[in-house]
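Q: How would the structure tokens look for this protein?
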Amino acid sequence: MRKGRNSRLMIITKQSVIGMITVIFAVGASGRAIGADWLVEQIKEPVRIEKRLDRREIALSNSLISRTFRLRPNAATVAYDNLMTCESVIRGIKPEAIVELDGQKFEVGGLKGQLEYAYLQAGTIDSLTSNPDAFQFASFETGEIKERFRWNRRRYSSQSAWPLAGKSLTLRFVPPGDKLEGLKLSICYEMYQGIPLLTKWLTIRNDGDKPVRINTFTSEILAAVEYESLVEEPVRWEYPNIHVESDYEFHGDDSRNANETAYWVADPQYSTQVNYKRKTPAMLEVRPPIGPDILIDPGESFESFRTYELIYDSTERERKGLSLRRMYRTIAPWSTENPIIMHVRRADPKSVRLAIDQCAEVGFEMVIMTFGSGFNMENIKPDYMAHMKELVDYAHSKNIELGGYSLLASRRISDEHDVINPQTGKTGGAIFGNSPCLCSRWGIDYFEKITTFIEKTGLDLLEHDGSYPGDMCAS
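A: Here is the predicted structure in token form.
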């Protein structure tokens, strides 16, 4: 429980616990009843976008969480609330993003003048000012959730909603003064019905007449309420009770090991924290580990990775795990298709047909010609592809899908085509030793062969070994 005068923090004393429990199960956003466990029952309360204070403030809410933005004198998050536990997620105001363009850093939105970063007093927000050197808020747009791509449903899935039910909010910004003429920056948010989840990303559109280089960016900054207040520095800090991950992650078999973008760091503005070295990791920064360091040509756009913020309603391990699994089923519903698969170890016609027959008999749905089977998708000779098409057609006649394995990474092609280690300037040193460079002539030809093979044979599945994102290449 936090102390202080944060008007949005509803947990105050031990005596209020009984009343708090009643509030949690009776009242949602703007006094609307929720009265159900979102992990057990379907929450029918829609996502709402409310304009307040004569359109100077706008809020996204779904009865489980809410995020409120003040729009004048610049746009900034002034409240981020966990409505399930009646707690505030944040204790202060930060820029909505930071971008480095042509070697110069710019804040995006934000408000200046908050003196105490242990809590945020709602009554002081009107006195805060805009940073004149930051990107300035210009307008906003609201809408329904749009699908990012078409979900080609092939089999049973426990999830059916796509695109997701919810609302989107886009805040549009322009550069300060006469800098970066023609550049438009947007911060995009999505909130979904029935789950305490928010998605955020940024886009940059260059409508000027000169290329602009985006060196790097930080797409989310949250001055979060700390999980614990310790005078000394512990062996391992406990982070705020929020799950943060992006669709730019790799090198791990779970979200913690694969995280490459979410960093919990000390907040230099939080001068009254308990830790005497001021190292409490109570500020979230979401940024790429390197770059992107690319040019945005006139008429072109850049879109960042998407960050997913899941607000937990408990510290219980099992409940947090259930919440995380619900998040994955929501944002990637195709992952629930889960066909029953058989890997066949030989790709000769007799072995493949036998596997297809066996799968059809016992109720399996898919056969994969696996690693070491002799199957070769890089072979686009007409007779080989015709031979494979016969097997695909036979599988389909039995209502079985047929796929195959292809090795891209952990193989050596040549010094000319392999990934270059930035530390040595030579090949080797990749995650699994060697890896071809995707932009080499060999890499381009490889994907052309794979595409041709699938189109000509009607193969249902590509089981791809690599590439492994994160292999640095200096070629």
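The radius of gyration is 26 Å.

Confidence is low (pLDDT under 50) at residues 1-33.

Upvote if useful.
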